[in-house]
């Protein structure tokens, strides 16, 4: 993959929140209430789950393909996750990676060899048995030149070779030790095993006729309208997240494509759909106390932030960067952008990701315009008659680029003007903004990410990524060393320490202004019981049933 294409792919993955977008991307900072975590739970204490019925889900986009190795769409990832499973799963309570289609796994002492023992008795929807060879063929296909530039090839980028010495044993040889490979292998969409028999049989039509090992089987696809899945009666290998280890209880799962958000809300109100994915924040409050619905809400696994271009002469001054941090009223930005449906961010990681420093709020910058002004004074910037600061004949003027016209943009502009900074705003198309930031033609960039692992900071902040997604041109040897340690050490305790040190260093050096962690909302009609939502895992349907 050429450098430009890889950069665009990574930017896309981070923008949509790979593995975490739509229903799979929800997480919570603390233990939510039962109402938040379990749809209909408060009404279901005396009810016994039963089989039968149809559940209808509304999605904002139609997938482009149901071949999980040939799509980059979040909606395709969601649908294919219903059809599949994978080697490992993420325990929602401990956030530990545990065996699923692998009954056990082990890492070599140097962390470069992973050996999995494959679970017996698992079959594909076409009856083909799942073996270690199934995974080898699946991963070899993902790593083939034909798949260059795909999500799966990116996710398996640390894999050097794959072998299957026998039907039960799968061996991955890595290019280097990787702390992120295990949580990556817990993705049941992109990295699920594929039936090579089905791929050969369907040929070019496989993308519309997928075959997996999951609880739901593909039945039909009405272009522009819906996809219908049916219960896999043979399923008896659920992961540890679900109480129901057997087939799903509903007969069918219908996935309707509803692009207009207001139409989605209207469909929920009328009962045309049972589960609405990605409810707009502005609509969340009216459903919180509605007895007909359960609102599942949680923080995303990422943050919105202001990224500084450290090649800008003005922003090379630490006092200026600190002043910018202290000038921003985050609560006001959350209200403007999200109607108050978010939480302030204090550093480069959200509390929904591994390694988050629970003490960060104590040493993060506090909102104070007076302290911000003092820092600018100390840096030699004096106010002129117009209230804008000057130094050596140069006015303190900065340019902020953004890919969306957030209401908070103007608030940021006015907050900086209050401390004597003239901020100009440019709202650009995403492709144009990527080009502008890659060239360094900006001072501040409104940025965001959603990801499943703190290794995302390597992409944004390691000096080797300058010219890529390290558009801020952060070049800090101490930070580089910690980022490498965070992505390579297999000791969880040491890895956590590394990320805590990274957060402290990022705050001390004021490399960015953390703004907020947005929430994601999913709405469930209470005729549907047992829909659960877990931190970092998202919505789980395996215990779902229809109460009618």
TrEMBL record:
Residues 96-459 form the Solute-binding protein family domain. Residues 30-71 are annotated as: Disordered. It comes from the Bacteria. It is found in: Cell envelope. Residues 30-48 have a biased composition (Polar residues). Residues 1-21 form the signal peptide. Keywords: Signal, Transport. SUPFAM superfamilies: Periplasmic binding protein-like II (SSF53850). PANTHER family: PERIPLASMIC BINDING COMPONENT OF ABC TRANSPORTER, PERIPLASMIC OLIGOPEPTIDE-BINDING PROTEIN-RELATED. Belongs to the bacterial solute-binding protein 5 family. This is ABC transporter substrate-binding protein. The lineage of its organism: Bacteria, Bacillati, Bacillota, Bacilli, Bacillales.
